[in-house]
Amino acid sequence: SSYQKALDAEPENPTLLMSFAMLCLSLDRWEELETAARRVLELNPGEMLRATASAALIAALRSGGKFREGNRIGKLLLQEGASNFTRTIAYFEMAYNLEQMEEELDHALEYAQQALDLAPDELKQFPLAAKGWVHYKRKEYAQAVECLEKSNDLGSSPTTLTHLGMAFLAAGNEDKARGAFGEVQLEALVRNTLPPDSFAFQYTLSNGTRADCVLKLPEPTGLVAVDSKFPLENYHRMFAPEASEFERRAAQTDFRADLKKHIDAIASKYILPNETSDGAVMFVPAESVFAEIH
To answer: Is the CB of residue 160 less than 8 Å from the CB of residue 151?
Structure first.
């Protein structure tokens, strides 16, 4: 590969090694990630590169269930690091590992909060996500929802959306849980289908409305907003086993009204002259629902 050729030419280049490690992380190639991250650390790089390599190494160890070894590296990073960036990474990784072990959740919450307090604005979504999931493990579902929603607002990810959906379910809010899971489906579909520069998630339009996703298509189509928050409550009522025929028909009528209301809302929020396309997309989360619409 091109990376291997570059590494053969410059085997002692920590920046190149770290770039290769991040590629391995994105591909879940854990053994290669661990080897590359350890090699970066052996070269005694600057603090930011050392913190990034340590985080990559902890992730590789976590994939193999080596949580305690990962936290030893996190504590060493705390001792050696002076910057808020380094300390944020250390506290975040240790909180994540304790949460995964489901041990010392009080300490995990403390670590997540310390990471959040230290994190620069561009990194706050990560400790917020960790703190939210620790709250979930502690069965503090309202706090979990609050943290995970804030994290998702700062930067969406499939993991955070899945955790948010689970927190909504645990808190008894099934409608919002379905919305979060719909966003997970949408994000997976878009990421697996389109090139990275042709879409954006949680995109804010000029009217202040935030679209779940926008597709950046060639002109004359341009920007197309996609909404994933499909109303499903009355759809489920239509097929409830205990429902009478009258109740099913009433639910069907309500479902049609929900659908029209949702379409009108999408049109009013996401179709803006001279900014977006003259159409928007309503994401339907299941083929059975799509069939019912038609």
So the answer is: yes
The rounded distance, in Å, linking the Cα atoms of 91 and 77 is 9
Cut 0.90: pTM above it:
no
Reduced to 3 states, what is the DSSP secondary structure of residue 116?
A: helix
91 CA to centre of own chain: 19
State how far Cα 75 lies from the chain centre: 26
Question: What is the bridge-based pairing of β-strands 281-282 and 223-227?
Answer: parallel
Residue 217 DSSP class: P
Alpha helices per DSSP H over the chain? 2-9, 14-26, 30-42, 47-63, 67-80, 84-101, 105-118, 125-137, 141-154, 158-170, 174-193, 233-238, 245-270, 287-293
Q: Which residues lie closer than 8 Å to 59 by C-beta, 6 or more apart?
A: 25, 33, 93
Question: What number of residues does the chain have?
Answer: 294
Give the model confidence (pLDDT) of 48-75 as tens digits.
999 999 999 999 999 999 999 999 999 9
pLDDT of residue 233 exceeding 80 = no
Whole-angstrom distance, CA of residue 271 vs CA of residue 205: 10
Cis peptide bond N-terminal to 220, omega within 30: yes
Q: Which residue in the block uniquely carries the two structure tokens 């954006």?
A: 200
Closest among 156, 177, 95 to 131, alpha carbons compared: 95
| Nearest-angstrom CA–CA distance, 12 and 203 | 41
Spatial distance between the Cα atoms of 62 and 30, rounded to a whole number of angstroms: 10
Look at the block and give the residue holding tokens 């629902």.
289
Q: What is the mean pLDDT of residues 162-172?
A: 90
Q: What are the residues facing 224 on neighbouring strands?
A: 215
Q: Hey, is 28 helix, strand or coil?
A: coil
Rounded-to-integer distance, Cα 181 and Cα 187, Å: 10
Contact present, 138 and 95 (Cβ < 8 Å)? no
Residue ranges of the alpha helices (H) in 119-207? 125-137, 141-154, 158-170, 174-193
Q: What is the 3 state secondary structure string of 91-102?
A: HHHHHHHHHHHC
